[in-house]
Amino acid sequence: MKKLNYLVSLFLVCSFVFISCQKDKAEIKDESTKNDATKITKQLLTFKQNLQVKSGEFLPADSAVWYLEGLLNFEKANNNHVFGDVDFYHDTLTVSLTEGQISLDELNNLYTTIDVWAETLQQQSGYEDYTYDIVDLNLETTGLKSGMQNLVVTLSGGVLGIGLNYYPFGPTDYWYWGYDLGKCGDYLGQYVGRDAASELQRKFMNPIAVPGAGYYIDVETISVIGGFDSEFEDPDNPYGDYMLFAQSGIGPEPVIDYCISPDEMNYYLSKFDFIRDTKKPLTKQYKTVYVYDTFVPAIDEWYHVHVYDLLYGIKIENPD
Questions:
Q1: pLDDT digits (tens, 9 = 90+) for 178-191
Q2: Other C-beta atoms within 10 Å of 113: how many?
Q3: Which residues contact 86 (CB under 8 A, 6 or more apart)?
Q4: Which residue from 261, 286, 292, 262 is spatially nearest to 274, judged by alpha carbons?
């Protein structure tokens, strides 16, 4: 499980929470077209043709990312989306913009880079039937030189199977809060490389499917950080103050890491649907979630928290 260290001040973290990490993408304005799977698929295939034959032309950045993301989801993540478990992969590519537009040549290079990366990950998985659940592209403003921005790429993939439908944690599920430390308590030393964050994600993934095969467009990621979102405070939480894991203290980061009991794990499991549904954009469906742990340093304080990256989109179902 990939872990991120946010080396930012408490002020920046709080700011991040109140400004959710959503992206502005071009939407299809005609509602009848938006809901017409055949027309949208044709638009994406036409876009792919244009990548190869219309060298020198440009698209507005938002539209370009919308089409590129949709095409990759159509080609890489077009299935029934029933996964027992998934892996998340992240990469950042540099994009050249000219007056807020991206050239088709640049888009073709991005498409090829992401396509090759996805194929490589499939081969490295060791599974012939490894496939993808969703592709998310997010163009973010950076401090790079004028005309350059970052394209953050997220791939979620696994082997299609049978969902476990929210099986609760059992009596042996004592897990360290994070850092891939594995189990704790009487089960110390087991499953090193996993932790409470990875196991919660595994449970949250089930159930994950909206019935019907297809792919997603207009994907949006919304992040929720434990301990920094008053929307998810819970005065009845016997383990803390929030619906997702958050621990803090004065002074340096503690040497001994917190051990989460099965009952506490099941508490976080029971609150996920509320968090997921509260953050859902009106016109989109929930698709999946990436859960990770992070250490947030602050002046004379420390925070150990879980972060939920919630992914939503519009599902385009394949015609019967």
A1: 999 999 999 999 99
A2: 14
A3: 133, 156, 157, 158, 205, 288
A4: 286
Q: Which of 61, 57, 88 is nearest to 221 (CA)?
A: 88
- Tens-digit pLDDT profile for residues 243-265: 999 999 999 899 899 999 999 99
Reading the block at residue 264, the tokens are 């506490």
**CA dist., res. 187 & res. 174, Å (int):** 7
Residue 310: C-alpha distances to residues 48, 136, 230 (Å): 28, 11, 17
CB proximity list for 23: less than 8 A, separation 6 or greater: 65, 138, 139, 140, 220, 221
Q: Which residues pair with 176 in a beta bridge?
A: 259
Q: What does the DSSP 8-state code read for residue 253?
A: P
Structure-token match 């467009």, residue found: 217
> Which amino acid makes up residue 127?
Y
75-132 tens-digit pLDDT: 999 998 888 788 999 999 999 999 899 999 999 999 999 999 999 999 999 999 999 9
pTM above 0.90, yes or no: no
Q: How many CA atoms lie within 13 A of 99 on its CB side?
A: 2
For residue 92, what are the β-bridge partners? 152
Comparing CA positions, the residue from 306, 292, 83 lying closest to residue 207 is: 83
Would you say residue 234 has pLDDT above 90?
A: yes
Is residue 313 a contact partner of residue 222, using CB atoms and an 8 Å limit? no
CB atoms within 10 A of CB 238: 8
Please report, for the chain, the start and end positions of each structural domain, with discontinuous segments joined by +. Answer: 10-317
Report the candidate in 123, 100, 101, 104 with the shortest Cα–Cα distance to residue 112: 104
Interacting residues of 299 by C-beta distance below 8 A, sequence separation 6+: 9, 10
**Number of helices (H), then strands (E), in the chain:** 7, 11
pLDDT for residue 163: 61
